[in-house]
Each structure stands twice: as C-alpha cells, then as structure tokens.
Design goal:
heterodimer, A: mainly alpha, 14 helices, B: mainly alpha, MetI-like fold, 74% helix, disordered N terminus
Chain lengths: 282, 302
C-alpha cells in the first residue's frame, strides 16, 4: 500500500485543506470543553462567546483538589485502580483462553466461543440487578473490587475474540520447534507464543483499560460512596450537584480525558487494530 | 485439513479446554448466572426488602403484562428503535463518505484519519457532558450560532423540551459512531483490488458506475457487519441518554435501558426493571443471530 502513488500538486493541497476543515468540525466539541475549562465562569456566559479565554483561569482545576466529596484527583485515582484491575483480570484470563480456542479443537469449543460472542452484545441493564445481588452476597458491594469484577466482563470476551486471531496466525512449526527444544505445552505457550502475540496482547490490555475507564453504569451502581467511585460517576454526580457550574464541569471532563489522550497519542496503531479486528472478525 | 490431521489426537485437543476454562468460568459466574437470575427476577415480585432474601413470591408473567400496558415502556421501545435507526443511517452515510474521502492518498490522509477516531475513544459520560454544554439553552454555542446566522430568533430549549431532546441525543451518538463506521469501511475499501477499477475505467466505466458496480457489491460483507454491530451497540445505549437527559423531560427520551435502570434503581421495582431489560435482551439476541451468521462464514475458513 505504501508504494502506491500519492496524489500530488494542487489537488493534494486542496484535499489537505478539506481534511483539516473536516477534522476541525469533528473535534470542535473537544476543543470547546478544553477552552471552556480555562475560562472564568463569567466569561463562559458571555455573549458573543470568546473562542480563546480572555483571562486564562486555572482555578477550576485547582479548586477540585480541596473540594471534599468531589475531589477529582481522588476519583481519578479510583478510576485508575479499577481500570488497572479490570485490565489485569482480562489479560490474565483472556490470553490463555484465546490460545486454547485458536490452537485446540476440544469438545465444547464452539459453545464457549459462542458464549464469548454473545456476552459482547449484552446490555448492562440485564446484568445490573443480578450483579448487585451477587456482589452483596460476596461482600464486595461498595468496594473497588465490585467495579473491577464487573468491568472485566467487558474486557474478557473482547480480548479473547481479538487474540484468538493472533494465535491462530502463528504457524504450528514454531510451537513444534519449541517442543523439540524441550518446552512443554505450558512453557512453549509462555516463552514462545505470548511474545509473538505481544501486539495483540497490547491491544487487549489497552481496550480492557479503556472500557473500564469509560464505564459509568457499573461504577455508580456497585459503589455507593462518592469517595470510592470512579471519575465518570464523579463527573455525573458533579453535574447533578453543580448543574450550571460549567468551568468546574468542563475541567472535570478534561481530567477524565487525559489518560485516553495519552493512550491515543502513544498507542494509536493498537487502537486502529483493535477497532477493526474486533468488529469485523468477531 | 487441520481437523483431519488431528482427528486421532483427542487427548491432545482436549488439553485446550484447560486454557479456556478459567475465563469461561469467570464469565459463567459473573455474566451467565446474572442472565438466568434476571429472568427469574422478572418472574417474581421483588421489593427492596426481599431483594437479597432467598424467598421471593413468584408471579409468572405479570410483570411482562404490566410493562406492555405501561405507556412509558411503549414510548421507550419506540424511542429506542427510532434512535437506533436514525443514528445508524446518519452515521453510516457520513462514515462512508469520510472513508471514501480519506481513501484518497493525499499527503496527510492517514494521520488525519487517525485523529478522527478520537470521538469514539472519549468516555461516553464526557461526550454527554460536552453535548449537554453545546446544546445548552443559554450557555450553548449551538443556539448562539443559529441566532447569529438568523435561523432562530429565540433560544431553543434543546434538552428540556420533548420535541428536540431526542434529536440532540441522536446527534451526540452520531458523533461517537462516525469514527467506528469510517474506520471499518476504510478497512473494507483497502481489500478491494485496485486492478478492478483500472480495468473498469479501460472498459469506459465512469467513477459513479464503478462505485455502484464494484465498490458497493464488494463492500457488502463489511457493510453488513458495520450495520449489524452498529445496531447492537446503538440499541443498548445507556450512559449517553442517562447523563444527557436521564430519560426526561417527562419520560420523553427514555430508552429501554434507561427506563429499566429507572425502574430498578430509582423506583426499586426490580422485577419490572428486569422484565424491561429482558425485552431489550431478546431484541438484541435476534439481531445477534444475524451477526453470528455473518461471522460464521469467516469462522469457517478461519
């Protein structure tokens, strides 16, 4: 594909300008909340609105640090813990499972694969009340563990379906060579196959993290105390409490986006691969 | 071919189950059991008091009969369908056009297309907040823009009037859905061999003709899976609606998911909430069958 001839000259410039214009329109909402978070409350309601802040105001961020219940940096920490936990469970369980599904034709394989496919389609509404009862019974209700366990159920099936394609594409010879070198099935899997499938494992880790980071329903339903809740639930309750305080609200929203932005900047190729292979290959 | 080679090695193959079992059991306990439990809950009469008790009165299909007589439920069902169909059409068309646009190999096509994925990655709670701000009556930039263009003279209460709230939610969801449609169609486009277009143009086919005769037919599997998956993702929308309107004003924007949540966790009618969720599930499963059939063809060769 890279050898393909690129469009040159005036047409190239016209297309570039059009592309940037489209991008600006699409990303305007993001730009708009970032700018708003740096304005004073007064300037936000000003008509006509200012495109860039007249007076740069970082108070909306600073104020959050001391702000009791709605301390956004604590919520950030909670979300980080929950997302890392969910990611760890997803990867640890999905990596061997996808290998098993890709490389062995055992009895019940089809049923299990179907099960993982179906869980991807489930609406949260079906799971909330039963999970709520289950977590109360397990005494994890109102702890980070409840959100971690629930969020991992999104990451696991996604990861298995992605990774099985990676493992399936690894030639059988490589595995056999490892056996000849004295590996057993388990050590061959750990030392030879996982390193080869590493890009796939990265995709799974990133998406499991992102799914958990973006979750609202589980975090707000299974964790009662605002101090323990993830940042999405923090934003939501902050909206209920300070409805029109847009400087604070947008600052909160911007902080929520930061890890997503970092992942996007440094790991974009994994994102595209995850979006496409996750959807088309199923 | 592989199957035949392995047929004698049942022992070898069955070892595979040990790798899958931990994940499968995890999903069985935390997803499989809840699905069954939710069906049971919908056939019982559960209150706050009996929620975690072991003994709950069985009422049969009473909850289902009652929700189908509930106007808010019917409204949410219609809303969910309307919302899904509108979102699918708009985001598919825009996504398709953008995919065609970025499929031209100009200088910055790849990096810009990459940046276009941002909306899809942003936590939905934040997206909801963003659009709530843009659609705000007094603070919103949309009203300001429409006013300065002379399209409206009075600010519109986008999110607080029943006529416009659903449209606002749809536009927010379309914003999330565009990258998803664009990137999948882009990937589909790259699988079409360039030679086909070349020979078509030698045969005298115009751009439009080769689009309808080559691009569309060869893209059919991609289009199918984009639409079916899009339907599934859109139909179960929850966070976006819950944060933007909470189902209001006066229940006018409830979706099946948000109404189920409201019944269960705000009105504590757990059984009714479970029944609504199961209706949602059944519809998704019916559509899911189409998806499975589409992927099965690939699974066969994979």
């Amino acid at each position: 594909m890279d050898e393909e001839k690129k469009i040159q000259g005036r047409k190239n410039i016209a297309l570039c300008i059009a592309a940037i214009a489209i991008l600006c329109i699409i990303l305007f909402p993001v730009f708009w909340i970032v700018v708003t978070s740096l304005k004073t409350e007064q300037e936000i309601f000003q008509v006509p609105p200012t495109i860039l802040p007249k007076t740069w105001n970082v108070k909306s961020y600073a104020a959050q640090v001391e702000n009791g219940d709605f301390n956004m940096f604590r919520s950030f920490g909670n979300s980080f813990l929950i997302s890392l936990g969910a990611m760890a469970i997803s990867v640890v369980l999905a990596v061997p499972a996808s290998y098993g599904i890709a490389k062995y034709r055992f009895k019940g394989r089809k049923v299990m694969l179907l099960g993982f496919l179906v869980t991807q389609m489930l609406p949260v509404a079906v799971l909330l009340t039963p999970m709520f009862i289950l977590f109360k019974g397990m005494h994890v209700y109102n702890t980070a563990a409840a959100a971690i366990i629930a969020d991992a159920t999104i990451g696991i099936p996604f990861s298995i379906l992605i990774l099985k394609n990676y493992f399936a594409s690894i030639p059988k010879d490589l595995e056999e060579a490892a056996y000849i070198d004295g590996c057993n099935r388990f050590t061959a899997f750990v030392r030879v196959l996982i390193p080869i499938a590493k890009p796939g494992v990265m995709v799974c880790a990133i998406f499991s993290f992102l799914y958990a980071w973006g979750d609202l329903a589980y975090g707000m339903t299974f964790i009662l105390d605002q101090q323990k809740r993830p940042i999405t639930a923090g934003v939501f309750y902050f909206m209920g409490q300070y409805g029109a305080k847009w400087s604070y609200l947008t600052a909160f929203a911007v902080v929520t986006i930061i890890p997503v932005a970092l992942i996007f900047i440094f790991m974009q190729k994994y994102i595209i691969s995850g979006m496409t292979s996750g959807a088309v290959k199923g | 071919m592989e199957r035949r080679k392995r047929k004698g090695f049942f022992r070898y193959d069955n070892v595979g189950i040990l790798f899958v079992l931990p994940a499968f059991l995890y999903m069985l306990v935390f997803v499989g059991y809840p699905i069954v439990k939710n069906i049971v809950l919908s056939l019982q009469d559960v209150t706050v008091r009996t929620l975690t008790a072991s003994d709950k009165p069985f009422v049969g299909l009473k909850n289902y009969i009652e929700i189908f007589q509930d106007p808010v439920f019917t409204k949410s069902l219609v809303n969910t369908l309307l919302f899904t169909v509108c979102c699918l059409i708009v985001q598919f068309l825009i996504g398709f056009l953008l995919a065609l646009f970025f499929n031209q190999h100009f200088r910055i096509s790849k990096p810009v297309r990459g940046l276009m994925l941002i909306p899809w990655m942003i936590p939905i709670t934040v997206t909801a907040l963003m659009f709530k701000f843009i659609f705000g009556t007094d603070v919103g930039i949309l009203n300001y823009a429409l006013r300065s263009l002379g399209i409206i003279s009075q600010n519109i209460d986008w999110l607080t009037s029943a006529d416009t709230a659903l449209a606002a939610i749809i536009s927010a969801n379309v914003w999330i859905g565009i990258p998803f449609n664009m990137i999948l169609i882009s990937t589909g486009l790259t699988t079409i061999p360039k030679e086909l277009y070349e020979s078509a143009s030698i045969d005298g086919a115009g751009k439009l003709q080769s689009f309808f005769k080559i691009t569309l037919p060869l893209l059919r599997p991609t289009i199918e899976s984009v639409l079916i998956l899009g339907f599934i993702y859109t139909f179960k929308v929850f966070d976006l609606v819950y944060v933007m309107t909470g189902g209001g004003p006066v229940n006018s924007t409830h979706m099946l998911s948000t109404y189920s949540y409201k019944l269960s966790f705000e009105m504590f009618k757990y059984s009714k909430g479970a029944a609504v969720a199961n209706v949602l599930l059944v519809i998704l499963l019916i559509v899911g069958v189409f998806y499975l059939r589409a992927t099965k063809e690939e699974e066969g060769n994979g």
